[in-house]
Write a sequence for this structure.
């Protein structure tokens, strides 16, 4: 009697195709979050912090004959004191909310000659805005907010230079990465790359689990790849089918491992890169500690993936067949080695671009653009060789970009949430409330509160880069006693990243589950314990960082 394969394993159909039902569900969920953000602007009181604006000395000198500018504060102890870093501003204590109207002419700005303070929050400068002075969006503009955010950035009216460069950069990078991976997929480069791994490790299949986990985590931790790695699903699904591992395990190789790698960021430009830039510190600060965290989380994640594979094998009644990955033909072996080398070259070029971007200070703010250019250069060089010409390479690249295009709508909608919140002037109010809780508390309690604060914010603002721009300047400028900038940045990384594969507002999670035909309920049930372990470990690392002064 012939043994039957694992009924939960893949059926061999590995074509990447996002179902219309999953896509509509994602859009509906995010639109609901957009509406919720709009409702909150009518519930939470509008308020503002003053922010520094850098002016050159020659321009500041023109203010010499101008009377002192007042920075209104609710802290009576600061009344009459000079605002640190400002040119000629003084604090003035007031409880009269109507005074905030007068600040609109100055835009709640404090002029400074210190370029490092440009755009940051002035401590103890929060004031509640009177009714009618907020730029809160009317209800009908909630639905236009995604496109307003893309075209007009954070301004109310369009003017030259108002395009949301950050959002455009992310969209462009996603299109480039989608095209790049499609070129590698059609050329057989990715298949050859994985086949070489299997050939070397087929007698120790669980070593392959650790190798694949490492590969995905490095791509996420270094390059910031996550959603783009979903293109690997057909390849991993084929591998898992041969091993009698389930579809759930196949998608976990992408969602779970990339989620952990994305979170334990080493040079991830979308998280630690952008957050470090907004905090005014080099990305190399605390990198040694993040390497240690990455190593520990890699071991824990590999053990989890091994557990999933073993559970699948227990359900199977047929030995794994990996013969299709074993190549005896010397010509094919040489071809695989050539393709794998070219794939390594492509990622090497991209890695070089990242290194250059973080090594040269003036280029750090362009890390996403540089990474995109590096991938294009690598794709042109490698794709031309693998596919035998620019025309087939261009066609494959266009197909990949087209395949990733629907996910761009998810990103555009997600950016509408912070746009609506900023227009409603509620984000400074939320931060002021949070900051009041942690003031005077121990650094350990403050870390937990900060963790919870970002967890809540993550549900409404899934974009890691959007949160980095939004909250990091406030968190790192307004000092929290006992918390270093590194601890604040790591708290942001942990609270933001792990929930990328837990909250239903994460487009990557919904797309991935749609590809593997898995429900949110099944995913939550099978991963929640592991998610809680990750949370406990991350909090432990944060407490250790506080204790040793990272």
């Amino acid at each position: 009697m012939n043994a039957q394969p694992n009924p939960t394993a893949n059926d061999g159909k590995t074509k990447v195709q996002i179902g219309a039902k999953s896509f509509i569900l994602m859009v509906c969920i995010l639109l609901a979050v957009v509406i919720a953000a709009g409702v909150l602007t009518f519930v939470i009181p509008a308020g503002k912090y003053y922010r520094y604006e850098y002016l050159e000395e020659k321009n500041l000198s023109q203010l010499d004959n101008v009377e002192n500018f007042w920075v209104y504060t609710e802290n009576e102890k600061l009344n009459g004191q000079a605002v640190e870093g400002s040119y000629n501003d003084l604090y003035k204590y007031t409880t009269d909310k109507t005074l905030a109207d007068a600040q609109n002419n100055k835009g709640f700005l404090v002029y400074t000659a210190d370029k490092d303070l440009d755009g940051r929050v002035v401590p103890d400068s929060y004031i509640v805005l009177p009714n009618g002075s907020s730029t809160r969006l009317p209800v009908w503009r909630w639905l236009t907010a995604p496109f307003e955010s893309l075209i007009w950035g954070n301004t109310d009216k369009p003017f030259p230079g108002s395009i949301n460069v950050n959002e455009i950069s992310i969209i462009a990078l996603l299109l480039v990465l989608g095209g790049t991976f499609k070129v590698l997929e059609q050329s057989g480069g990715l298949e050859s790359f994985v086949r070489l791994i299997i050939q070397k490790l087929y007698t120790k299949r669980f070593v392959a689990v650790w190798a694949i986990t490492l590969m995905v985590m490095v791509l996420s931790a270094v390059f910031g790849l996550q959603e783009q790695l979903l293109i690997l699903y057909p390849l991993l699904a084929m591998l898992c089918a041969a091993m009698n591992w389930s579809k759930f395990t196949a998608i976990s190789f992408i969602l779970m491992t990339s989620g952990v790698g994305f979170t334990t960021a080493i040079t991830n430009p979308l998280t630690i890169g952008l957050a470090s830039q907004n905090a005014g510190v080099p990305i190399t600060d605390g990198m040694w500690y993040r390497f240690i965290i990455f190593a520990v989380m890699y071991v824990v994640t590999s053990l989890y993936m091994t557990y999933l594979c073993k559970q699948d094998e227990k359900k199977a009644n047929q030995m794994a067949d990996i013969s299709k990955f074993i190549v005896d033909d010397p010509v094919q072996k040489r071809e695989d080695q050539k393709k794998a080398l070219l794939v390594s070259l492509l990622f090497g070029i991209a890695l070089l671009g990242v290194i250059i971007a973080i090594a040269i200070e003036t280029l750090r703010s362009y890390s996403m653009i540089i990474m995109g250019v590096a991938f294009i250069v690598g794709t042109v060089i490698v794709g031309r060789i693998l596919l035998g010409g620019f025309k087939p390479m261009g066609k494959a690249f266009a197909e990949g970009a087209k395949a990733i295009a629907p996910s761009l709508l998810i990103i555009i909608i997600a950016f509408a949430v912070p746009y609506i919140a900023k227009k409603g002037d509620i984000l400074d109010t939320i931060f002021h409330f949070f900051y009041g809780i942690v003031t005077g508390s121990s650094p350990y309690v403050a870390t937990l509160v900060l963790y919870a604060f970002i967890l809540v914010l993550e549900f409404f603002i899934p974009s890691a880069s959007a949160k980095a721009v939004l909250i990091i300047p406030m968190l790192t400028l307004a000092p929290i006693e006992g918390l270093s900038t590194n601890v604040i940045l790591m708290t942001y990384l942990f609270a933001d990243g792990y929930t990328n594969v837990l909250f239903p507002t994460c487009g990557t999670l919904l797309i991935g589950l749609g590809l593997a035909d898995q429900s949110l309920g099944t995913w939550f049930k099978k991963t929640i314990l592991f998610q809680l372990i990750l949370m406990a470990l991350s909090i432990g690392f944060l407490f250790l960082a506080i204790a040793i002064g990272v």
User: Anything to note?
Assistant: DSSP finds 19 helices and six strands in the chain.
